[in-house]
Amino acid sequence: MARPDLAVPSMLTSMQTLRLVTFAAALAALGHFPAHAQHVLGGETIGLGTDDGALTPDGRLAVTRENTAASTAVIWDVATGAQLMRYEASGGAISGSCCDAVEVTDTRAVVIGTSIQVLDLGTIQPAPIAEYPLNAPPRDLAIDALGRFVLVRASDSVRVLDLSNGAQLLSVPSTTTSPGGPYDVDAAVATADHGVATDYDQLSSAGVTIVEFAPSTGGPPRVVYQSPPNARLAGRPHDLAVSPDGQWCGVRSDQEVALYRLDGTNTRLMWKASPSVAVNPFDDSAMDSIVLTDDWLFTMGRSASPVGFTVTEAYDHAGGRSIALLPGDPHDLDLTPDQGRFVMRTSQRLGVVDVSQVQVGAGLFVHEVDTASVVTGFGAGLDSVAASNTHVAATFVRASGPIGRIYAIDGTQPVFERTIGLLGAPLDVAFTPDGTRAVFTSLPGVQVYDLRTRTLTLSERPVVGNGWWPWCDGLDLNAANALAFGIGLANGGGGWTSLLDLFDEPAAACPSFANSTGAPGVLVATGSSRPASNDLTLWARGLPGGVTTLLAYGALGAPVRFGDGALCLAGPVLGRYITPAASAAGDLRIDLDQAAVSTGPGTFLVGTTWLFQLVHRDPGAVSGHNVTNGLLVPFLN
Question: Which of 387, 388, 457, 500 could lock 435 by a disulfide, CB 3.0 to 4.6 Å apart?
Answer without folding.
Answer: 388
